[in-house]
Amino acid sequence: MDKKKLQDILKLAENTFFETPVFLSKVNPLKEIAAPFNVYSDLLNSLYKYNNLSSGGVRKVIKKVLLEKEFNFDNIKILTKLEKEKLYSVLAILCHCYRWDYLPPSKDQYKITKLDFPKKLWTPFCLLSDEFEIPYCGTLFTTTVSNFKITNKACGESYDFKEIEFDDIEVNHIWIEERYAKELEQWIKVFVMTEMKGGYSNLACLDILKAIVLDDLNRLKKGLENLHQGIKEITKVFNTQVRNVFLNIDLWRNYVQPSFIWGLESDPKFKYALEGASGLQVGCIHLLDLVLGIEMQSKMGEAMMNSRKYFPKEFRELLNSIEPYRYLLKEYLFKINNDELTNLYNRNISALKSYRKSHKNRGKVYIKGDGSEKQITTTGLSIKTSDIAIEDFEKDMSERIKETCAITR
Length: 409
What we know:
Blueprint: H1 3-15, H2 38-46, H3 59-67, H4 81-100, H5 107-111, H6 119-132, H7 140-143, E1 148-150, E2 169-171, H8 181-214, H9 217-241, H10 249-260, E3 261-264, E4 274-276, H11 283-292, H12 299-307, H13 313-322, H14 328-336, H15 339-368, E5 375-377, E6 383-385, H16 386-403
Helix pairs in contact: 1-8, 2-4, 4-6, 8-9, 8-11, 9-15, 10-15, 15-16
């Protein structure tokens, strides 16, 4: 172990990411965009009226509105980071809406791999993608976990993740019909709160690495105990909020899930279709897997590693800087041969397995929907019918669970 290098990484992390230790905006996101770029948010806020086949879809509306407007995109450069994050999120969601045209999408929309976007939408989107160093598609960060506001905080105000609860979160933009809006709101809030509650495990991960650098077994014990509690907090969000009483299975499949898929070869830097927003991009799970030393050789593990390119640069760099130390905790526990600490580690593995088993069981139900055959995009962007997608998902998750192994002697 290069102790000095890891110390430097942890010090930098303390001064940046761990000041607000969540894979979200560091302050309460903006709800509005200033003129002239408020045209985009106004447009997004109107799309729910057209996002269905009977109204003719959203593409013609987006084209018409933008055709009538003039923009100087050089002005994007003078926006604050918070303003850029807001505009980028709105543009990403608009691109996803344009990509699908209406909900539920036609089968033909699942088959396309290339699409021409209106220049006044695609140009600013690509400019901001380049600035944040993210591929040219929407991501979990841009379409989902940036699309919220903490109701009891002013926009731009800092917050303590420990004080935020599910009902404190409000979704800023809804783009599906009003009768289905609560399904979209619930889905977005689940991901926001997963990252919010993930703050507990993120802090514990930092303490665990610090403890190893300092060779402090008491601190390591506390870190492993806190990590276990952090995993339970993440699991609680999923088990409590991803239930049919809050999230209608059939409506999710038809009116929520499709919006987040991309599946287009839209970036010349990548000679394949990009995935769009995905649960594989949940930052706290990446850090958790990394510090616990989880292998990434399964299909799901490899897909998670591939998804890292969709993170904003600062988050991606944090994960990549810690990546060389993926097996540090495991190796350290082998070295010191301390039964109490090994048992604490194994308890964390059991908790993580329980989270993944719950994900597998609930995921199968949501993929199945009402049981009728539908188009669906699974992890890895393979277009398949529902029954096959269920089998693939169960297989992939089972491999991932098996890969999540405790330390044995």
